[in-house]
Amino acid sequence: MLNLETDNSKAIFGELDSLKLQSSMTLFASVDTQNEVFNAVIDKFFHGYFCQKTLLSLGNPARFNIRVYDGYSTVYIISKETIKTASYANEKKESEEAITAKGLYEIAQVLDRNGSYPTRMDCSGVDDDAIPYILDKAIELESNFISAYLLKASFLNRYKSRLECYDDIIELFPNDIRAYLFKGAKLIYQKKYNLAMLFYDKVLSINPEQESASAAKCHCLFMLNKWQETIDVLDSIIEISPNYCKAHYRKGNCL
Predict the structure, then answer these.
(1) pLDDT attached to residue 59
(2) Which residues of 149-161 are buried (b: 16+ CB within 10 A; e: fewer)?
(3) Is the bond leading into 118 cis (omega within 30 degrees of zero)?
(4) Which of 92, 152, 182, 231 lies most in the core, judged by the most C-beta atoms within 10 Å?
């Protein structure tokens, strides 16, 4: 294989067997680190990118090496120690920096914002799990990076209906109100108003003057036709923020 002129494994084996080749070479290279043949196959046919899913199944995430296209003009080449940012048209025009949790988080933000999942993703070895995988690496580097947890939860809930992700964040950061607010909003979207109010009540126990939690709780009570309770909460909002027009408007609707 290494003597072939082509480096296109899909042309030789087809797409499925090409994936099998990448996975098996990753496995063999991990088990027999002295044999350079397996690494040479990875270098030639997969541009040096090991199969991340195989590495994860082996419990060996050390060879973190993926390539992600943002859907517009930029390629991010992420290794264990560095992040290279290159032009998609010309990868010789590139910059390189040390890998950091913040750097990985910003890449995940770009991919998420650009709608790269699932149609614009070009990610070797990670496929549609690129965004959560990158965020996992950010969290691995900085375990208290709550923004990475929140973005991962938002992504998983949006595409994989994983609402319980917010419970994990709440357990890790019980005094940070953002996970409570996000989960409450998702529950409102599902029309689970009574359950959503539990999370807004928790926010208000941490910060009684949190307007967005009070307003969201009012919405839940209003949708449940609990007019007097809605008015009571609105009165407390107006007392704190007398110029909050939306509270006056909602109170008018209740009356």
Answers:
(1) 64
(2) bbbbbbbbbeeee
(3) yes
(4) 152
Q: What is the pLDDT of residues 114-129, one digit of tens each?
A: 554 443 344 444 445 6
Is the separation of the CB atoms in 55 and 67 below 8 Å?
A: no
Token digits for 5? 């002129």
Q: What are phi and psi of 173, to 5 degrees?
A: -130, 70
Task: Identify the bridge partners of residue 94 per DSSP, sorted by sequence position.
Answer: 86
Q: Which amino acid, 142?
A: E
How much is the CA Rg of the chain, to the nearest whole Å? 24
Q: Which helix (H) or strand (E) holds 82?
A: strand 82-87
Longest CA span, the chain: 82
* Rounded Cα gap, residues 214 and 85, in angstroms: 43
Using 50 as the pLDDT threshold, list the residues of the chain that sit under it.
62, 116-127
pTM for this model (two decimals): 0.67
Angle of the 245-254 helix axis to the 211-223 helix axis, nearest 10:
20
